[in-house]
Amino acid sequence: MKKNSQGFTLIELLVVMVIVGILFSFAALSLNTRPSPAKLAAYQLQQLLKLASDDAILRGQIMGWHLAATEHTFVRYKEQKWQLLKKDNLLRSNSIHSKLEYQLSIDNLPVTINKSLEPQVIFMPDGTFSNFHLSIQLKGSEEVYTLYSEANKILLKFKSADDY
Q: Model's pTM, two decimal places?
């Protein structure tokens, strides 16, 4: 007695679904999902500023962050003066991507960029730090990433042209 069955077995359907899933995963991986340089710079700087704040607390020393035209640096207040961190692998000087624009304000006042070692953002050993807003934008782009301090936290927000 022969059964005349129509359709597919469960195993056949599962094999086809696995093959389709593998093809979709290859398609998803082939898409360029790399973040913009502005987003990457904003996220990295957020983590570095948090690290500087933690360092000030743990060492019991005042730390500072300075934004210049081509780089940003971390300094420590030691022996009655600001000293550049040269041997610190994490809080060292970092160059600024040439396609990025940075705008810094402290207490809602714009900051002029200068070459001195005087920091614009100061991290105190008690966990407090300067009230700041830092906007990072790719030149010619409408997307803006803003780092700002609020309740002794360093937050990151994103704003596109659609938000205006």
A: 0.76
